[in-house]
Design a protein that fits this description.
This protein is an alpha+beta fold and 409 residues long. 47% of the residues lie in helices and 13% in strands. α6 runs antiparallel to α7. The N and C termini lie far apart (78 Å). Bound molecules: 4-(1H-imidazol-1-yl)benzoic acid.
Length: 409
């Protein structure tokens, strides 16, 4: 009798590879299967635990004491494995070490600080859109807009020199691959890691940076004693790692959403045109819908009870942000991109003490680009087959061919 009463029910298991090409091409079926299997699932291929329901993902994100980041937010467990580069002071740290760098960066990237960039970015977006539309009514939304705009505004805002900026996207792409297993994607990036890392590290030095950008402001914080001079270059490195690929894929997501929603709900783009202040909600809804950052790991700091199961101390848990953002337990009609829903509460920017410190930068970029496009374009639709870009962490597009119809000026 006691045997039955005390026995732990069998943990649901799944042998899929969340980082395999098939899942990266279309993760939605795996997400649905994991959500259905239960609140926690064993991923046998990597011997890690998985949360795919909103409730558990949200709970883990806000419980930084129980689910630490300092052992790494990728598959690699820093307790046992040497990280590929010195750990991030923000992403791969917990309080108290996390707090000073976080405070500094949230001031540098906060809404107040961005006010002085706003006008210039709106003008830059208009100039870019003008230039792209001047080349014809068909173009690739990824290269022409989603990549071009962040590359036009962000490196200048950080204050790095022109030379070598083509390294930013490949470096970021590798860093986000490196949160996954050492699979083919990591192997493809490996030959350039030393060269790219050396370039990125060199851009973090004080004398390389302009004296008025985000980089200079981080160094100024070290003069005030808010962080140490040893920490400053690593905080700049976080900007260079996280600041371009993420917004490129976020912008791709919102452009794809509008280009495809056009078929099912042409009124979505019309609504944005009539009310450009919807640009920000549209971007957040796209971040929910597409979840450009699909997954991050945490590590259990004690035996954590989840329903009738236990995640043992020291074990990695893969949090499926993308699955949580489409959990029907939390969202009505989760698969539809819908400007009339309230997307707040999505976990595409995380939640809790690590919630995306760059989200205001991302929203400003999106607002600038969408506003400029909506002013000139009265219809946007796909003009050919889209192609995914595979990355172990990011849900990304390689190519989104679009056709636009120009409206009144
Ligand atoms: C999603 C910091 C943040 C930002 C780092 C680092 C890397 C990636 C991200 C992920 N990140 N948005 O290296 O400090």
């Amino acid at each position: 009798m006691t045997a039955t009463l005390n026995s732990t029910p069998t943990l649901p298991a799944n042998d899929a590879d969340p980082f395999g090409a098939e899942v990266l091409e279309d993760p939605l079926p795996l997400h649905a299967a994991l959500r259905e299997a239960g609140p926690v699932v064993h991923l046998t291929r990597y011997d890690v635990y998985a949360f795919a329901r909103y409730e558990q993902v949200h709970a883990a994100l806000v419980d930084w004491q129980g689910f630490q980041s300092a052992a790494g937010v990728g598959l690699s467990n820093f307790r046992y494995e040497e990280p590929w580069r010195p750990p991030s002071l923000l992403l791969e740290a917990d309080p108290p070490r996390h707090d000073a760098p976080r405070r500094v960066l949230s001031r540098v990237l906060g809404p107040r600080a961005l006010r002085r960039l706003r006008e210039g970015w709106l003008a830059d977006a208009e100039e870019l859109v003008e230039q792209v539309l001047g080349g014809g009514e068909e173009f690739d939304a990824v290269s022409a807009l989603a990549q071009a705009f962040p590359l036009r505004v962000f490196p200048d805002a950080v204050g790095i020199p022109q030379e070598g900026r083509e390294n930013l996207l490949p470096y970021g792409d590798h860093a986000f691959n490196a949160f996954g297993p050492s699979n083919d994607l990591v192997a493809e990036g490996a030959p350039r890691v030393a060269e790219l890392s050396a370039w990125v590290d060199a851009q973090c030095a004080r004398d390389v940076l302009t004296d008025d950008g985000f980089g200079a402001q981080i160094w100024a914080a070290s003069d005030r004693g808010d962080i140490t001079p040893e920490q400053a270059p690593l905080v700049v490195r976080s900007l260079l790692t996280a600041g371009v690929d993420t917004t490129v894929h976020g912008l791709s997501a919102v452009l794809y959403a509008f280009a495809t929603a056009a078929a099912a709900h042409p009124q979505q783009w019309d609504r944005l045109r009539e009310q450009p202040s919807l640009a920000r909600v549209a971007f957040d809804e796209a971040v929910r819908w597409e979840s450009p950052v699909q997954t991050f790991f945490r590590t259990a700091t004690c035996d954590v009870r989840v329903g009738e199961h236990v995640v043992p101390e020291g074990r990695k848990i893969l949090m499926f942000l993308g699955a949580a953002n489409r959990d029907p337990r939390r969202w009505a009609d989760p698969d539809s991109f819908d400007l009339s829903r309230d997307p707040s509460g999505h976990v595409g920017f995380g939640m809790g003490i690590h919630q995306c410190v760059g989200q205001h930068v991302a929203r400003l970029e999106a607002e600038a680009l969408l506003t400029a496009l909506a002013r000139r374009v009265d219809r946007i639709e796909l003009a050919g087959p889209t192609r995914r870009h595979h990355n172990n962490t990011l849900r990304a597009w390689e190519s989104i061919p679009v056709r636009v119809r120009l409206g009144r000026r």
